[in-house]
Design a protein that fits this description.
The complex is a heterodimer.
Chain A lengths: L1 H27 L2 H27 L6 H16 L5 H4 L5 H5 L4 H23 L4 H21 L19 H20 L1 H11 L1 H6 L4 H27 L9 H14 L4 H21 L3 E3 L2 E3 L5 H16 L32
Antiparallel strand pairs in A: 1-2
Chain B lengths: L1 H28 L6 H17 L4 H24 L7 H23 L4 E2 L21 H23 L1 H11 L1 H6 L4 H26 L2 E2 L5 H14 L4 H21 L8 H15 L17
Antiparallel strand pairs in B: 1-2
Chain lengths: ~350, ~300
Amino acid sequence: MRLRLGNPFVGFVVPALLVVAVAAVGSVVSSANEIYFLTALVDVVIVVGLYVFVGNSGVVSFGHISFVAVGAFGAGLATIPTDVKPNILPDLFPFIREHSIGNVESLLLAAALGGVFALLVGLPLMRLSGLAAGIATFAVLGITHNVLLYYTKIGPGAGTMTSIPETTHLTQALVAALIAIAVAWLYQLSPLGRLVRASREDAAVAQAVGVSVHRQRLWAFTLSGAICGFAGGLLVHQLGTITAEGVYLDLTFLTLAMLVVGGAGSLLGAVVGALLVSGLDSFLVNAENGVHVLGFSFDVPSGASLVVLGALMALILVLRPAGLTGGREARLPRLRRGRPQEPRPATGGTS
Amino acid sequence: MLQTALNALALGSVYALMAVGIGLVFGVLRLVNFAYGQLIMAGAFSLAVTSEHGWPDWASLLTCFAVVIALSLLMEVAVFRPLRDAPPATMLVATFAIAFLLQAIALMKFGSLGKVATIFPGLFDPVADSGRFATVRWVTIVAIALGVVAVVGLTALLERTSVGLHMRAAAADFRTARLLGVNANRVITLAVVLSGMLAAAVSVILVIQTPLVVPSFALRDTIIVLVGVVVGGLDRLWTATLGGFSIGVATSIFTDKLPTDATVYVDSFVFGLVILVLLLRPSGLFAPRSARPVERA
C-alpha cells in the first residue's frame, strides 16, 4: 500500500528532476550554448501541453500549434513597449496598440487565450470520433495560420513581429516547465484525467458505463490548449520575434515527433522525447553550419536536419510504436514483494 | 456564372480524385495517409526533371506514374506493413513523419525555389479565344473528364470484379474478410497501387495548372482534401469522395466569389464552413442518419 501511494509521485519527480538537470547544465555552459537548453525547456512545455490531450485521450491532434500561435502572438503583442508599438505595427486595433502589460501577466494572458480558443474549437470538434477529430484539428490550424498571416489588425501579417522583450531566461523556463509538468501530472491523477483515460482505452465501453467521451475530451483539450498557449508566451519571450510561419507546420511536426518518439502514453515520455529531440534538432541545425565532435568533422548539407529527424521518427515508430518509454511512467525499482506485475501494453514490443 | 461552375467542377474533380486515393487506402488499412500530398509532389518533381531533360511528354508521363507508384509501394512495405497492428494514432503520426521526410528531401535536393515543369503546354490554352469562355482552359475539361472516368472506373472495379468485392469486404471488416479467405496483402497492394495511380494523375493535372513545382507542392490541397474526406465521412469510399468533391467546389466558389480584399481568407472560410458542417453533422455530411458516433478500436 505504501508503494501505491508513493509510485504516482515518482511519475512527477522523475520528469521534474530531468528538467531541473537540463536547466542546471544550461546554467553552467557558455552563454552561446545556453540557448539550446532554453529551447529544450520551452519545447518541454509545448509537448507536455500536447501530451495532456493526445496522451490522455488517445486522439492525435494536429492543431495544437494553433494554441501555441495564439499564445505567442497574444503575449508578444501585449508586451511590446507602447512607445514603439504604434511605429512597428500601425494597423493594430487601437486598444491593443495603446496598452502593454508585464511579463508574467502576458504569460497568464497567453494561457487564457490558448484555453479559451481550445474550448471554443473543441466544442464542435470533440463530438467527432477520434481519428476524424484529430484530422479536423488541421482545419483549426489552417484557419489560425491563415488569419495570422493576413490580418494586420492583430499582428504583423506576413511580416515579423519584433521588439518583444526577451524575458524567458533559464529560471523562468524551468519554473514554467515544472508548472506544466505538475499540472499535467495532477490532471492525469484526478478523476477527470481517469475518465478521459478510460475513454482512451475503449471509447464504447467508457460511454456504456456513463463517461461522456465528448465532455471529457473537451476538458483535456481545453487544459492542453491553455498549457500550449502558455508555452507560446514563453516561446515568444525567448525568441523576441515571431512570424506566422514559425508557429505552423514545422513546429507541428517537430512537437509531434517529440511526443511520439518519447512515447505519447506517458508524461515521462513527453518530457524525455521533448528533451532528446530538441537536443538532436539543435545539434543537427548546428551541424548544417559544420561542427566538430570528438575530432570528427561533420559537414552536413543544409536541410539535412529535417531529413534526419523525419527518418528517425519513422524508424522509431516502426521499431517501437509506443515510443522510447513505451508509454510507461517512471517508477521506483521494485523493492518490496507483493505487487502484481503490471501487464505490458501490447504495442510496446519491437517488431 | 458558367465560368464559376466549371472552375468549381474542375477543382472538385481533382479533389475527388485525391479523396478516392486517400479513401481507398483508408478502407483497407484504416490509415489516413498524410504523405499523399508528397506523393503528388514527387510525381510533379519527376515531371519537372524529365521535361527539363527534354524527354517527350509521354515518357515524362510514364516516369511520373512509375515514380509515384513505386514510392507508394515502398511506403506500404517499409512503413505501413510493419505498423499494420499499431494503434491508429501511431500510424497517423508515422505517415506525417514520411510526409515531412519526403518534403525535407525535396527541399534538400531541389531547393525552396523549385523547378518548372513544361508538360502538355497545349492543355493550358483556353478552349475558345473569345467570349465568356476566355478563361476556361483545356486542362479544366481534362480534369473534369478524368474525375468522371476515375470514379466510374473505380465503381465498376469495386462493384463488378471479385477483387473489388474483396476490397469492399476488407474495407467493411478487415479481420472477418481475412478469415473468409481474402488475401490481405493482395488487396492492400492493389489499393496502394490504385491510390498511387490517382496521385500521379493528380500531379499531372496540377502541374499543367501551376507549372512551378516547389517542395510544398500540393500541400495545401492535401490538407483541404484530408479535412474534406473527414467531413464527408471516412467510413465509406463514396462519402469520402463526395466530401473531397464538395470541399473542392466550396474552395473554388469562395475563391471566385469572395470580394477581392477577402480572397486571402479563402482557407479560413473553407475551414470555417467545415467546422459549421461538423457541428451540424458530427458523423459526416453524407453519412446515413443511423451511423453511430461511437468509434471502434
